[in-house]
Design a protein that fits this description.
This protein is of the alpha+beta class. 29% of the residues lie in helices and 28% in strands. The chain is globular and about 60 Å long. The termini are far apart.
Length: 418
């Protein structure tokens, strides 16, 4: 009897459902397990089993897997991180069981935005001017040195939480207080430090993009480029994505993404690289995650290019990845847009009777009596709409996906103003 299994950390999270299909294809018959806090998590029933535990608590994850080993005799053949809150646990298990995966130092290189920018800068890669700080006075001193506008962010969070722009001097105290409040609002569930921050020069951009890079050893291959759509500043919340990007053929961008993965020591799995491209065409790296992109970006890759990146992600952690073809030809235009209700109490949700062919999926995460708040992070969105238009190419000024999602938001929700 095979006593090994593949452990997916974060596989029960929303918008990552296709990891199960990819993992099953890559598993070679091994069971695919996930981890969740309890049995009320609805998606765990689709896995072969689950181990109870908090995926963000690395030491607790290791203890839970060891307890499972004592009970069943099973050990993981690979541990697959799905988001920023699971990478530390995955690296700890990888080192403990001597598996293929990114080590703890690589994860620190990617999770700590200050360490990341130092490494990228030392490698000669283009990054905004940056500095670390803890206190309001330190921030004020740095702003006096940098000038305005700037962006501040927690050093170890994700999902745009606490990422804010400061444009005017009189905003400094208020915006920093909001950043601190955003960090504390997680109540420690991310197991990230709550007093470490970073300030960066603000990069005015014609376009923000992400690049999905598959890695195994010294092989780094940019698979796909995504055009990103952001909500209103001072926040930087992602409201949609589309693929292929207008910059899919930008070889300099792809090269920088691959070099960044190499510099940070990312040797296994899909990495998520984000950058801004200025009107002059200059590329500035925002961050690099040693994990798959969220927000259904992996699904966009699958629809656009016909490959499941999760399968490649798992194959790499099994050290079985084969190089991709020299070119990946897009089959059409894929997109996702996030549903945002107006501010108020959601009294009723009325789903559409049918969806047009180009809408391939709709998920409404809000429930009646939920309070719809202002869009300040991924936590204040009410759902998503995914699209695919066969044989359609990237278009300058494309925003059809956003318009359709806004139309759905107006028809889905009956609101009571507060």
């Amino acid at each position: 009897m095979n006593n090994t299994y593949i452990l997916i950390l974060g596989g029960e999270f929303a918008l990552r459902e296709r990891v199960l299909a990819g993992a099953l294809r890559a598993s070679g018959g091994m069971r695919v397990l996930t981890m969740a806090k309890n049995r009320t998590t609805p998606t765990i029933k689709f896995f072969d089993g689950f181990i109870p535990g908090d995926v963000a608590d690395a030491e607790a994850v290791l203890s839970a897997v060891q307890a499972h080993q004592q009970e069943t005799g099973e050990i993981p053949a690979a541990v697959i991180p799905m988001n920023d809150f699971t990478v530390r646990a995955a690296s700890l298990l990888t080192e403990h069981y001597q598996l293929h995966g990114n080590d703890c130092q690589t994860i620190t290189n990617c999770r700590d935005k200050f360490v990341m920018k130092q490494i990228l800068q030392a490698a000669g890669l283009p990054v905004p001017r940056f500095a670390a700080f803890r206190t309001l006075n330190e921030l004020k001193n740095l702003i006096a040195e940098f000038g305005l506008p700037v962006v501040i962010k927690p050093r170890e969070l994700a999902g745009s939480l606490g990422v804010l722009k400061i444009t005017h001097e009189q905003e400094i105290e208020e915006v920093f207080a909001r950043c601190v409040t955003d960090v504390i609002s997680l109540n420690g569930e991310s197991f990230a430090p709550e007093d470490l921050f970073q300030v960066e020069e603000y990069i005015p951009a014609w376009q923000e993009v992400s690049v999905e890079v598959i890695n195994q050893g010294d092989y780094h291959r940019a698979m796909a480029v995504t055009d990103k759509y952001l909500g209103e500043e001072p926040n930087f919340v992602e409201v949609g994505h589309s693929m292929p990007s207008l910059h899919s053929d930008n070889q300099q961008l792809r090269d920088i993404a691959e070099r960044a993965c190499h510099a940070l020591g990312i040797r296994y799995g899909v990495a998520h690289f984000e950058a801004r491209i200025t009107p002059a065409g200059e590329i500035k790296i925002i961050e690099v995650g040693a994990r798959t992109g969220g927000d259904t970006i992996m699904d966009l890759v699958e629809r656009t290019y016909g490959i499941n990146p999760y399968e490649l992600h798992v194959l790499s952690h099994l050290n079985k990845l084969k190089p991709l073809p020299d070119t990946l030809e897009p089959r059409g235009l894929s997109a996702v847009a996030f549903i945002k209700a107006d501010v108020g109490v959601i009294e009723k949700i009325t789903l559409p009777a049918s969806l047009p062919a180009h809408v391939v999926n709709m998920q409404v995460t809000a429930k009646p009596l939920d309070l719809s708040k202002k869009l300040v992070s991924w936590k204040t969105r009410e759902g998503s709409v995914e699209y695919f238009w066969p044989q359609r190419a990237a278009e300058q000024g494309f925003d059809e996906h956003l318009t359709i999602a806004d139309q759905y938001a107006r028809s889905l929700f009956t609101l009571r103003q507060i």
